[in-house]
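User: Please run a holo structure prediction.
Assistant: Happy to. Please share the sequence and the ligand.
User: Here you go; the ligand is pyridoxal-5'-phosphate.
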Amino acid sequence: MTAPDARRAEIAGNVSAVRARIAAASHAAGRDPSEIVLIGVTKFHPATDAVYLAEAGVPDLGESRDQEASAKVAEYAQLTTTPATWHFIGRLQTNKARSVARYADLVHSVDRPELATALASGAERAGRVLPVLVQLSLDGGGSHDRGGASANESRRLADQIAGSPALRLAGVMAVAPLDADPEPAFTRLAELARALQGDHPGATIVSAGMSGDLEPAIAHGATHVRVGTALLGRRRPNFG
Ligand SMILES: *Cc1c(COP(=O)(O)O)cnc(C)c1O
């Protein structure tokens, strides 16, 4: 096999293994695996890997930095006609919001009012309605080291987004705290998601679970899992 063929086969094998984990976790939770959207996180991996993922049946792709993402989205479009859905999942500075609003299909990481305002103005300029998720903090008001809005902040943020014609409130996203049991964090996420859906019935997405914790996330109602390492291998050390 040539090197690209070997990489394509490796990624296809990883996709099968991750799909099997999702199926097992869904069945254990009494859920239908087809309810779960697998997002392949391509950050720090080349655009060709994004193409191999899409061709292996994972057309939902996740990126976390604007500069890398905008270049990869453009390169992807040069490489293939296979449609992709681009998810922006990383911490986002307001001065990058206009750029992200042009190419992202769903922004997962809206955690403060200034960012919602900047994305709304970017989306308006681009002539589109941008679906977004409110990123919730699950570390109990502590260090907030994984980002996200507190329960109170998230309620106000959700109302702001719902009132913005250029944005659509599609749900919530969270990252479990590092080095802690993800179970209580995902239990809390499910409670917060349910509360938000009471006020905003269209906010049905729950984006949670990564390579190491997709099973408990699915057990607690995740609709979208964001998986990088288990699909594409390790990223360069010390980055992302
Ligand atoms: C990098 C990243 C992921 C993927 O993490 P893996 O452990 O490699 O699966 C998921 N979510 C966010 C927000 C990320 O930044």
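The two ends are 31 Å apart (CA to CA).
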